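Saturday, quiet lab. Running sequence design on the structure tokens for the scaffold JK sent over.
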């Protein structure tokens, strides 16, 4: 059997295996429901006076959960190779660290003006 014939025989089987790992329509609807509940929680947290002291950390946690669900299910990172997740999250982490560094630097410079 030639090499190209082997590729044609194994390609559909590999494709079918890859397709079985992706979410179904019901799973997408469940994730959409969870995202809706998290969004309602974000809106509710803003209007609860007792939670005003922890508003920002709570909103960051809720938005991080929503970000994970969107990236994992709608971008298929949960089902693809770990290499793709690394290619996505490494630059994202690097950008977040740069953003945090610049925010801290500009905050410091705002309170300590130069000569």
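Result came back. Writing it out in full:
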């Amino acid at each position: 059997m030639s090499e190209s014939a082997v590729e044609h025989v194994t390609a559909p089987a590999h494709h079918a295996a890859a397709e079985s790992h992706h979410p179904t329509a019901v799973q997408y609807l469940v994730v959409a429901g969870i995202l809706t509940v998290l969004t309602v929680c974000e809106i509710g947290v803003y209007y609860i006076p007792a939670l005003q002291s922890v508003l920002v950390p709570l909103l960051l946690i809720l938005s991080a959960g929503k970000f994970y669900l969107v990236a994992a299910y709608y971008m298929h990172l949960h089902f693809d190779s770990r290499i793709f997740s690394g290619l996505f999250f490494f630059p994202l982490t690097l950008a977040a660290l740069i953003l945090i560094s610049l925010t801290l630097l500009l905050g410091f410079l705002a309170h300590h003006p130069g000569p």
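Notes for JK: The mean pLDDT is 83. The two ends are 79 Å apart (CA to CA). Ask whether to fix the surface positions before the next round.
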